[in-house]
């Protein structure tokens, strides 16, 4: 059971890895076929584009899980550390409101407003299969935003952007290396 929950907790990561590997291989195949045989598969490019779109949206959800979305944080330098996480959580409420609105609108579009005969040009399947990523990814993103805020505010965990650079630590390292 522990393995199942680990998989669920990392679903975006697994999806992104799989989608990236497949669409890069498909595009590589397309380049080889074009170069060597002067031929191309039109469906292959279309499928790669759809996979890339799915990759982007699941990647955004994964970034939300890692607390790695871009934020303007310069103004936080002047505030006490304890207040920053509450201000970020308040700002995340606007993000959640946007996501919930977008989920509602995308579901309404896919199931009510989309042309019933709209299909992909070369592959022929209904485009709702492509657009369904919108409510799925934004729902996952909303869940991840709530999860990160729960970890920060309730569990008191230090959840930071993994790519964030601590300039004071870099300066200290430079000073140590100079001496």
TrEMBL record:
GO molecular function, one term: transmembrane transporter activity
Subcellular location, principal: membrane
One GO term of the biological process aspect: C4-dicarboxylate transport
Transmembrane regions: 20-37, 49-68, 89-107, 127-146
Domain (Tripartite ATP-independent periplasmic transporters DctQ component): residue spans on this chain: 24-147
Keyword list, A-Z: Cell inner membrane, Cell membrane, Membrane, Transmembrane, Transmembrane helix, Transport
Job description of the protein: Part of the tripartite ATP-independent periplasmic (TRAP) transport system.
Oligomer and partners: The complex comprises the extracytoplasmic solute receptor protein and the two transmembrane proteins.
Name of the molecule in the record: TRAP transporter small permease protein
Species: Granulosicoccus antarcticus IMCC3135
Primary gene name: dctQ_2
